[in-house]
Amino acid sequence: xxxxxxxxxxxxxxxxxxxxxxxxxxxxxxxxxxxxxxxxxxxxxxxxxxxxxxxxxxxxxxxxxxxxxxxxxxxxxxxxxxxxxxxxxxxxxxxxxxxxxxxxxxxxxxxxxxxxxxxxxxxxxxxxxxxxxxxxxxxxxxxxxxxxxxxxxxxxxxxxxxxxxxxxxxxxxxxxxxxxxxxxxxxxxxxxxxxxxxxxxxxxxxxxxxxxxxxxxxxxxxxxxxxxxxxxxxxxxxxxxxxxxxxxxxxxxxxxxxxxxxxxxxxxxxxxxxxxxxxxxxxxxxxxxxxxxxxxxxxxxxxxxxxxxxxxxxxxxxxxxxxxxxxxxxxxxxxxxxxxxxxxxxxxxxxxxxxxxxxxxxxxxxxxxxxxxxxxxxxxxxxxxxxxxxxxxxxxxxxxxxxxxxxxxxxxxxxxxxxxxxxxxxxxxxxxxxxxxxxxxxxxxxxxxxxxxxxxxxxxxxxxxxxxxxxxxxxxxxxxxxxxxxxxxxxxxxxxxxxxxxxxxxxxxxxxxxxxxxxxxxxxxxxxxxxxxxxxxxxxxxxxxxxxxxxxxxxxxxxxxxxxxxxxxxxxxxxxxxxxxxxxxxxxxxxxxxxxxxxxxxxxxxxxxxxxxxxxxxxxxxxxxxxxxxxxxxxxxxxxxxxxxxxxxxxxxxxxxxxxxxxxxxxxxxxxxxxxxxxxxxxxxxxxxxxxxxxxxxxxxxxxxxxxxxxxxxxxxxxxxxxxxxxxxxxxxxxxxxxxxxxxxxxxxxxxxxxxxxxxxxxxxxxxxxxxxxxxxxxxxxxxxxxxxxxxxxxxxxxxxxxxxxxxxxxxx
Length: 813
Ligand code: BGC
Hints:
Helices cover 31% and strands 24% of the residues.
């Protein structure tokens, strides 16, 4: 296991389970995130059902795309934030052996506490033994699931066994609508009550309790219903008090005899299709829900299908971690996502960090999904397309043309980036200029292109895809200004992926000029948009021209900008932005020895009264992101189109320069560096890959995973195997491979869905690549290596010997 991993966790390769031994309040928040269960429609943190929210426990249930806005007064300003709403808590189930206090791990003696996450079947099992104040022992086993087949259902089974005594056990099972968004310490001073008008009730026979409420400003109505049943006669009563719907059961426990209580819950919101109202839908659904055994069986079947479609076999210690990452990706973005109007939440549906917002992180997620669940990718791109108009409004409001996608996106696609952020080190609220990361638009365009390349979905490419690409290209062309002295176009006043640098030292205005990543990706977008427009079928082209008022002169301007955007250099390396080379050098050794962990160097320097803007110091890969997005050949071509020669030596120098000046303050950083170094400096790659693998399980960014997983980094590690190490590209209707061996991750296999072929198996190891194409009536797949192309017919396999052990020049079949 990577360094720093929770020492009490034991992943079991064969069994696919992650087991946490013991109860540790300090690790509870992290475990809640990592033990979250979800199905793409909603997710629930792995919180203890007998505990309410407090400083140790952070229960949370989040439905994809369910946002609400609130205003707060902070530092003399009134600010508005939109949050992914913490919905009513369906988990509460507490119990006591007498009229005293309810048993809880914080107040009672725990003889045993174990929590096991079973990835194969998508269940979380808790095994506990309590001792009450009178020394009576109670064994509790609890299994929960958030149903992967029926996305509106969840179940919590609890088995109670009295050990050495007989008597009553009171059980209270509730739906709690009094919850707030309080899972992130830094946001505590911000308004957090998103739910209002909570009403609770019960069915006539008392078998079902329900709760309905709505969000305060987005007016999303929420309905939940719970059926709680014991497998032994037990008097049941219901109560509904302020915002809580409660079932009370009295169980007669006999020594050594287990009594089981099943709580089945349904959740609907007014965003759901095919319902009359959410409460009716929830009550109806829970009434029709089968028993636990049947639900578990159908849930397992749904998971089995997912694992089949995302087959991944990595026999080393990276294997269990990759599988955990895949599990959380699939719980956030599942086949159910294909029917939703949602984007890629940077922190999954696992916590409240970044308010559930959608950033450029889909750049690290969609390329993976494209080759397994293309319908999900298409839905996520359609989320962007539905907000294209809003992005065009944003551009127009700022005096630009085309589409300016927001750095942070939520419900309607307006800019959701906070105006102020708190530096927890200094306690100061500071202006946040990260909204100047307009490069997010290129990420949207890149994903459109990648998706269409991987799937051959020309219908999407020629309609929604073309509209997005054209408007993003138009934005870049309009933003670029010609500098006569330089003889080039410049894009000024932006922030690059390294969000540390927001302004020039001492400048009164935020923004930097000629961010290399922004300019090169803008040139790529312009070139692709031109290719696409030229290739569009005539009628479609006419429609598009009319719809977005495109005229031929504009395309000439795009062509010109795409060839003459400025890329700054200093000391023989690509500059992150114009003037970067003049910034001071940071005393990295001094800062490391003084502070130890300097990942958040920005906060350290600000707390010292200094600014990271003054230094050649990056939070994460910026220029180097170019090597993440483009293969070496494609990047060389892009630079050549811009009139620059990018040779291997310049790239290598650039890699070394930034590697020595990056603090890795984002989980995305180690991933991108691992990916780049696998080709550019192989001996150093594994350390970064390991860090990317450990990002969440060892909470590398110090306390952030407890606020939600890092979905981009998780999906990115899967893609590192799928595309990074194999060099897999789907360009031009051919599967291109250019494998690079990483000794620590040298053998692996996976299956992809590619242009109508389901389950194309690729396996690398021992200097060989084998490809198996399942039988079908589809065309053969062309597999292209560096120097040859081999067609593989459906129903056939082929093994290619990678004669050069570097793996970069596979030759012989
Ligand atoms: C990173 C961004 C990322 C965001 C959300 C930040 O820490 O710097 O690149 O988009 O987190 O994951």
